Amino acid sequence: MDLAAGNHVGNRLVRGLAGALIVLALGGCSLGNFGGSSAFGGAPTRIADISGQGISTVDDALARARAHFKTNDFGYSAAYYKRAAELAPQNAESYVGLAASYDRLGRFDLSDRVYASLHRISGDSVQYFNNLGYSFMLRGNLRSALVNFRKAAALDPENLVVANNIRMLSDAVARSSA
Asked: What percent of the chain has a predicted confidence (pLDDT) above 90?
C-alpha cells in the first residue's frame, strides 16, 4: 500500500470513529445521558467529595446518584453510587451506576475494577455485557465493544438497547470503510 492510500484509509477510519463518538450521545448504556460538566461547576472528570453528606441508607445514596447521573453530573453520581456500594456490597445497581459514572468521567481504570466486581455479583447478564461493550466503545476499542454487545444480544435477542448499540457500532465501522 502506498503512503497516499494509507493516509486515505486512516482518514476514513478517523472520520468513522468521530462519527461514532457523536452518535454515542444518542445511544447508550442503560443509564441516562452522555457527557457534560458538573451541575455544580466542578471539573467533569473529578469524583466529588460527599464525606460530609451523612448518607446512611442505600436508598438515599441511590436516589441521589440517579438524580446526579440524569443531569450529567458524573462526579457526584460516582460518589453516591460508590457510597451505595459501600452500604450494600451485593447491590448490583450500585456497581452498574458506579461503572457507568466512571466511564462517563473517562476513568476507565476505575470502571474496569467496578465491572469486575459487578461480574462477581451478577454474573453474565445482558446489562453487564451491554454496559461493558459501551465502555469499550467510549474508549475506541470497537472490537471489544462488539464482542460484548454480541454476548448481550445472545442473552436477550429482543433487547432494543443492545440492538441499537450494535447498529450504531456497525454504522460507524461501515462509514469508516466507505
From this structure: 65
